Amino acid sequence: MKKSPQQKKLEDMLQPSKFSAEGFMGTDTRSVWEIIDADATELEKHGKTCAEVAERMQELTDIGKPALEEWVEVGAKLKVKVEDHRGAIPCPWPHHVRCVKRITTVVYKPTGRTIRWSDLNIHLIKEHGFFEGRGAAFRLEPRELIETIF
Amino acid sequence: MILAVIIVSGIGAFLATVLVFAERVITNYGDVEIDINKGSKKFTVRGGGSLLETLTQQKIFVPSACGGRGTCAYCKVKVLEGGGALLPTEEPYMDKKERADNVRLACQVKVRNDIKIEIPEELFAIKEFTCTCEKIIDLTYDIKQYNLKLVEPQTIKYTPGQYIQLLSPPYEKSSEEVYRAYSISSDPADNTGIELIVRRVPDGIATTYLFDYLKEGQTVRINGPYGTFYLRDTNVPIVFIAGGSGIAPIKCMLHHMKNTKNTRQAVFFFGVRTTKDLFLIEEMKQFEKELHDFTFVPVVSQPEEDSGWTGVTGRVTDVAVEFLKKQGDVSNREGYLCGSPGMIDSAVKVLADLGIPEERHYYDKFA
């Protein structure tokens, strides 16, 4: 099927660019829509929606933000640290959304499993259902993410 | 068979000729005039390029981070005449007022005919510099200092507190040129070089280049200076608050205060998380000796148990509020803040709570 200009632009924006050295697709050979579909199926298996996952991620980021890069205990099992870096990164989808370079690190204390996400990850999951391609620097595996943050 | 090859080759050659002809004739816009700020600057250029690249060729540097892809929306300029209609690629980036004011993305506007534009006057002062990376110093595990010697032009004029954009060239992990902004931390008395203090961004294109690929002796390109974060010319006591690499523009301002024998009272709260994140402490102590009335307060929020840290512990903004409250009425002061958006937001609230009005809060937010 022929791709629309918008689809072509999106695919171009997901590749390595001036904003992301490795791009958002990583080494994944699937199309962006295949990745979104597969991750949506994975979420469904765990009884969660993109909105719920993004909301919990945002909640943890918001808990960590006022601590200005200190670790914050969240309940008995999680600790969170939020770091801000200079600059902003635009969403690769064609709309005017720009996220500050803020990185949230969450440690699940019983196992030591550590997951990190950027503010852009939260937006990509919430608005586009996109967890990024495998091999991308900020790819989030839905199962691991859900098991860690809920 | 041979005839078929000849015919196919002939058709190919004919089409190529048509394409070359079309490019030269049909898309030839000829010479066009660009008028900037109602005649303040005018030049004639060959039409056909984007407004952004045409201005760059004329050494007028409109900030841009995406290299003309129409995604960063930094290159907004007013196009008063000759820019054509707003394109669908620009629409998402313009609010109602900007549309009414004829604001456009310079990277999306094609220069096809005479064009009149309006840009901030300060952009005329921005230059491109070729430098040599003279020295790289590890300040902490994730912060480095870069001393760049200017080669061409050989001197730079900037206001302490401003920043430059550094070009990260294509390298193993990034196939494109990108510009990133860094505050100048040097002593402005030396106008033949600049010093930058940079913190590594995980998987960041420019900081990976600076940390892992740039070596002493190599060439670096920058342009600038930019920004409105600078010391106001008053006699009001100063409150500086910075976190991590946010110390850079404040250090530059302190050099300037020393050079100009500025006697203003100033206190600098410098926040880091652990003692491993502390740096430039000796330099700051030296400023305490050399400046008329300057106090430096390094603050560590989570000192390691075995660090032996005996200094101030806590969140930098909490410490600032506690310290300043003891000084009585501090509402006449000016606040200069540099650091992460989170730290700035928190510091702005602190200054407001202390009665320092918003118009005397000056900050360089890392966004």
From TrEMBL, chain A:
It comes from the Bacteria. This is Uncharacterized protein.
TrEMBL record, chain B:
The keyword Iron applies. InterPro entries: 2Fe-2S_ferredoxin-like_sf (IPR036010), 2Fe-2S_ferredoxin-type (IPR001041), Beta-grasp_dom_sf (IPR012675), Cbr1-like_FAD-bd_dom (IPR008333), FAD-bd_FR_type (IPR017927), Flavoprot_Pyr_Nucl_cyt_Rdtase (IPR001709), FNR_nucleotide-bd (IPR039261), OxRdtase_FAD/NAD-bd (IPR001433). Keywords: FAD, Flavoprotein, Iron, Transport. GO terms for molecular function: iron-sulfur cluster binding; oxidoreductase activity. Residues 30-123 form the 2Fe-2S ferredoxin-type domain. The keyword Protein transport does not apply. Pfam families: FAD_binding_6, Fer2, NAD_binding_1. SUPFAM superfamilies: 2Fe-2S ferredoxin-like (SSF54292), Ferredoxin reductase-like, C-terminal NADP-linked domain (SSF52343), Riboflavin synthase domain-like (SSF63380). It comes from the Bacteria. Residues 126-232 form the FAD-binding FR-type domain. This is Oxidoreductase. The lineage of its organism: Bacteria, Bacteria division WOR-3.
